Amino acid sequence: MEFNVTRDGLTLAGIYEPAPEPNGTIAVLFHGFTSDRGYTPTALLEQLAQRLRTIGVGTVRFDFNGCGQSDGDFVNMTVLNEIADAQAVLTAVQDRLAPKQIDLLGHSQGGVVASMLAGYNADLIHKVVLMAPAATLKEDALNGHTQNLVYDPEHIPAKLPIRPGKVLGGFYLRTAQLLPIYETAQNFTGPVCLIHGDDDQVVAYSASQRYDDIYQQSTLHLLPGANHRLDGAARNDVLQLATDFIAN
């Protein structure tokens, strides 16, 4: 069912899918850079949501500002305002659904958002799953290399075309350079499941290794041959690892 949330005048397009036999846990799912909440049966977050429902976990997933069906322009998107989006959704989940427990699952940049949101709300979050978390986005911005973009990290332009129809705002990169990703994430001391492919060409798996170092209760799963999308032969392993972790 529709689960739209308003943040600073922007409507974030969300969906709530209750479990047929709910156990009181709600999982909030966060998508990655330039992606969306999942509108096809092959989408990672769509598949995760369906798996979680089978173990009694209801799910909420949404499009970040400037993505999918949400309001906003992508050029204005930053990790900081995605955290603001996520906080607004978290508050809405608490107020509207009143779950016994809230778990966070994020892929790529959504993993960074999930990790920082959990750090800010360590007393409210039960478990966290980070899938190919893109914490290297800070290092990339400092080095002047973000996916296919090359730029002067000390003189970042206002706008950078990142692909046809997508323009990245320079403020995204300026704020990325100063993000306290791991410093914030480590405030969460609950259970964390880290999943990363060892053939990820977008985000080095050293990002998950560093998360594993700073967390108190984490387990790292490196999947042989898996890429950043965690698709193909690795997809079922990802779904199983995440579902088992949330269930136990």
Produce the secondary structure layout.
Blueprint: E1 5-7, E2 10-12, E3 14-17, E4 25-30, H1 44-54, E5 58-62, H2 79-97, E6 101-107, H3 109-120, E7 127-131, H4 137-143, E8 145-146, E9 149-150, E10 159-163, E11 166-169, H5 170-176, H6 181-185, E12 191-197, H7 206-214, E13 217-223, H8 235-247
What is the CA-atom radius of gyration, in angstroms?
Answer: 17 Å
Indicate the low-confidence ranges by residue numbers.
none
Q: What is the CATH C level class, in words?
A: Alpha Beta
Compute the number of strand runs: 13
The number of domains:
1
CATH architecture: 3-Layer(aba) Sandwich
**What is the CATH superfamily?**
Alpha/Beta hydrolase fold, catalytic domain
Listing every helix as H and every strand as E from the N terminus to the C terminus, the arrangement reads EEEEHEHEHEHEEEEHHEHEH
Strand line-up across the major sheet: 3-5-4-6-7-12-13
Would you tell me the structural class of the helices and strands?
alpha/beta
* Major sheet summary line: 7 strands, mixed
Any idea what the shape is? globular
Helix count, DSSP H or I runs of 4 or more residues? 8
Return the average pLDDT rounded to an integer: 97
CATH topology grouping = Rossmann fold
Protein name: Serine aminopeptidase S33 domain-containing protein
GO molecular function: monoacylglycerol lipase activity
GO biological process, one term: acylglycerol catabolic process
InterPro entries: AB_hydrolase_fold, AB_hydrolase_sf, Hydrolase_4
